[in-house]
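ingest -> fold -> write
write: protein_1
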Amino acid sequence: MAVDPLIELRDVNKYFGELHVLRDIGLTVGKGEVVVVIGPSGSGKSTLCRTINRLETIQSGTILLDGRPLPEEGRALARLRAEVGMVFQSFNLFAHKTVLQNVSLAQTKVRRRGRDDADRRSLELLERVGLAAHAGMYPAQLSGGQQQRVAIARALAMEPKALLFDEPTSALDPEMINEVLEVMRQLARDGMTMVVVTHEMGFARSAAHRVVFMADGRVVEDRAPEEFFTAPRSERARDFLSKILKH
């Protein structure tokens, strides 16, 4: 168990109509921990990720952030989303705004920062993801990998307690994947609490504190990466790894 839990899911169940997508999920993520969630398509990974900041509501169970249940709606929910940043497969940047404006916007709207303060913070974060020189460009002028790094800077601008990544590299060309993963590795080294849904096994091995393997809506294994990859306990995980690690 994590010493100082930041995110806790207790007996979480989620249905889409008849489909039981999350089954009695129990998961704790400690402060500063990087938890990578892997598993076959349709296993509930992305849904799990989206319940943590209430992009998906759950039918039963409890989700706690810093010891408090997730708020239902309204301002408290907006605050929660500022505290738990999310990076999606698609970058969701505003096409008509510059990179700098994209990163500053929520700071002025949600965090109520002055424009100059917000812009100064945005430039620091763009520097951190290696894109300060692109601040005046528009998303269409950037590669996919660059756009995703802007999206990460935008999430960081809210000074979140945790970041959720929902397959952040799956829409990228292979040569761009590493530039995004490198930014994520640096965040991990800096102590950011992260829940990462990904197919990138190299990232899971090198950056995760724990690997959570899901199948059929359940957490099947939750272990240190070296244990999971060298000696998975379940038949389901062995089968999954044998398919995914073959080159």
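write: protein_2
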Amino acid sequence: MKKIIVMIIALVVLVGTSSSAYAHSGRLDKNGGHKCSAKSKQKGLCTGYHYHKKK
């Protein structure tokens, strides 16, 4: 019974924290954005300047 409770708690914590994590490989400017790298453009992830943080 204890194993099930621990597993449920671990799952809730994992799901709850993963939704608030945003992957980002570059630095952000004072506006919370940046220009896409050539690699990201090739993958179709972005086309130019974009934001990661809302003002």
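write: annotation protein_2
The first strand starts at residue 33 and ends at 35.
The chain is about 40% helix and 10% strand.
pipeline exit 0
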